[in-house]
């Protein structure tokens, strides 16, 4: 079968919830992907901010192969060695207290929401609670995660009004404060909004949320699924702000391609959930946790977050130059290897992404006419140069 046949069969057999690009990706090598016809692509999407280590990292691949031969799955009725090791690594890196492993980011969000609800319930036994979430946020597609996702486009048709969180303006502390009621059990936000268009939180906003949650004795949840794990140049994005959450969610680069997520609780939130309150069959299985361990080991050995910070600064300078050169680029935001360029409405970001794909460059859009740059964290300055060269060709034609 050739690429066209696979695309036809994909359309025939896979439920159509995506408009996919007409490309079948077959293998990866470093920062490049290859399609089924052997065409090479420079990858500035990393499978949506997932493949931090690049493709074909030997130590990572070997760790997975070893674990496959040893033990792929047990259940959470037993302990397993990779899970214990991975939990310890996450706790030590985050200076939080305990970890629950999930299979995805969405499930990490579900768990985090349950922690906040249960924390409130344990105090007063009332059953009616509200969350405050942010406009333009994204937390996942299940009913619970969607209920706190500030985007009508995703919610409509699925989440009735009464189940939706109360939404506040991101980076507007007064707006959040005005929405707190005695039903509020938690505030959830991304430290850097990803899908919404790459909007970093302002330091005063996060500090204010922390203070507010302490005063009201409610839980602060930071969704670090996209911005965490080194992408912003520190292990977790909130490290840069010196503000700690009560619950943090992780996924995407946590397993670097093996589907795994986690929510992490601090001392205050620990104990909200007790045996029987939450569970999962796959979550934290030895295979997934071997991936987490290999990621942490590679991060340490290769100083991946520090590298992301350094290359991120280079990327920043290059994108700033583009912004100065082309007047249809209206904004540039982000931190380290999570950056976005916003385009004026007359220049659709989607068309630029399509043109890039034809020229062998994978880019992704986000939010309202933004191109998002979330490459593997191991990219080098020369890869940034190659990306910029291709992008400039496209912008010159545009
Ligand atoms: C991707 C993402 C999610 C959802 O994670 P899945 O693994 O797709 O379920 C949640 N929050 C943020 C910030 C994300 O970027």
Automatic annotation (TrEMBL):
Claim: Plastid is one of the keywords in the record: no
According to the UniProt record, one GO cellular component term is: cytoplasm
Question: Which spans are transmembrane here?
Answer: none
GO molecular function terms attached to this record:
identical protein binding; N2-acetyl-L-ornithine:2-oxoglutarate 5-aminotransferase activity; pyridoxal phosphate binding
UniProt subcellular location: Cytoplasm
Q: What EC number(s) would the UniProt record show? A: 2.6.1.11
Q: Which Pfam families match?
A: Aminotran_3
Q: Where does pyridoxal 5'-phosphate bind?
A: 105-106, 138, 223-226, 281
According to the record, how does the cofactor bind?
Answer: Binds 1 pyridoxal phosphate per subunit.
Catalysis: reaction(s): N(2)-acetyl-L-ornithine + 2-oxoglutarate = N-acetyl-L-glutamate 5-semialdehyde + L-glutamate
Query: What domain of life is recorded for the organism?
Result: Bacteria
Listed binding positions for N(2)-acetyl-L-ornithine are 141, 280
Q: What class of enzyme is it?
A: transferase
Report the cofactors.
pyridoxal 5'-phosphate
The alphabetized list of GO BP terms reads:
L-arginine biosynthetic process
Tell me which family the UniProt entry assigns to this protein.
Answer: Belongs to the class-III pyridoxal-phosphate-dependent aminotransferase family. ArgD subfamily.
- Mention any additional remark: May also have succinyldiaminopimelate aminotransferase activity, thus carrying out the corresponding step in lysine biosynthesis.
What is the protein's name according to its record?
Acetylornithine aminotransferase
């Amino acid at each position: 079968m050739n690429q066209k046949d696979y695309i036809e069969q994909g359309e025939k057999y896979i439920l159509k919830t995506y408009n996919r690009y007409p490309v079948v990706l077959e293998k990866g090598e470093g920062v490049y992907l290859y399609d089924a016809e052997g065409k090479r692509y420079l990858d500035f999407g990393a499978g949506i901010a997932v493949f931090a280590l690049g493709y074909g990292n030997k130590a990572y691949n070997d760790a997975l192969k070893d674990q496959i031969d040893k033990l792929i799955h047990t259940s959470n009725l037993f302990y397993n060695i990779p899970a214990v090791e991975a939990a310890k690594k996450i706790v030590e890196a985050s200076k939080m207290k305990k970890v629950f492993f999930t299979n995805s980011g969405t499930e990490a969000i579900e768990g985090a929401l349950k922690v906040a609800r249960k924390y409130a319930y344990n105090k007063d036994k009332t059953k009616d609670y509200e969350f405050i979430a942010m406009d333009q946020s994204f937390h996942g597609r299940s009913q619970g995660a969607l209920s706190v996702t500030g985007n009508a486009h995703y919610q409509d048709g699925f989440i009735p009004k009464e189940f939706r969180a109360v939404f506040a303006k991101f980076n507007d502390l007064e707006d959040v404060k005005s929405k707190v009621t005695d039903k509020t059990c938690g505030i959830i936000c991304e430290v850097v909004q990803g899908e919404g268009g790459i909007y970093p939180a302002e330091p005063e906003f996060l500090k204010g949320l922390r203070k507010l949650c302490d005063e009201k004795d409610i839980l602060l949840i930071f969704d670090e699924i996209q911005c965490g794990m080194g992408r912003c140049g520190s292990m977790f994005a909130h490290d840069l702000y010196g503000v700690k959450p009560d619950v943090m969610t992780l996924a995407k680069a946590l397993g670097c391609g093996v589907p795994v997520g986690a929510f992490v609780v601090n001392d205050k939130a620990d104990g909200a959930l007790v045996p029987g309150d939450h569970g999962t069959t796959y979550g934290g299985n030895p295979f997934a946790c071997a991936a987490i361990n290999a990621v942490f080991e590679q991060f340490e050995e290769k100083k991946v977050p520090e590298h992301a910070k350094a290359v991120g600064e280079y990327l920043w300078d290059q994108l700033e130059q583009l912004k100065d050169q082309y007047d249809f680029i209206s904004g540039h935001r982000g931190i380290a290897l999570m950056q976005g360029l916003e385009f004026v409405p007359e220049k659709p970001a989607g068309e630029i992404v399509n043109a890039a794909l034809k020229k062998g460059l994978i880019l992704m859009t986000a939010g309202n006419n933004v191109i998002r740059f979330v490459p593997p964290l191991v990219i080098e300055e020369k890869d940034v140069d190659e990306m910029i060269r291709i992008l400039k060709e496209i912008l010159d034609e545009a």
